[in-house]
Write a structure and sequence with these properties.
With 52 residues, this protein is mostly helical. The chain has one domain. The protein is rod-shaped. 0% of the residues are buried. The mean pLDDT is 95. This is ATP synthase subunit b, chloroplastic.
């Protein structure tokens, strides 16, 4: 039974680590999208100013 408990603890630990990694990846993705959105907005604004 002791070996089974250790396997279960390791499984829970791996699941938690995976969830943490996925959360970090999601946050990085959102930050990247926000940055890219701002870059595009800035380029559009600059082009609009040049056309004036």
């Amino acid at each position: 039974m002791n070996g089974y408990s250790e396997i279960e603890r390791e499984k829970v630990s791996l699941i938690n680590a995976t969830c943490d990694s996925l959360e970090r990846l999601e946050n990085d993705k959102n930050e990247t999208l926000y940055f890219e959105h701002n870059q595009v907005r800035q380029l559009v604004f600059q082009q609009a100013l040049q056309e004036l």
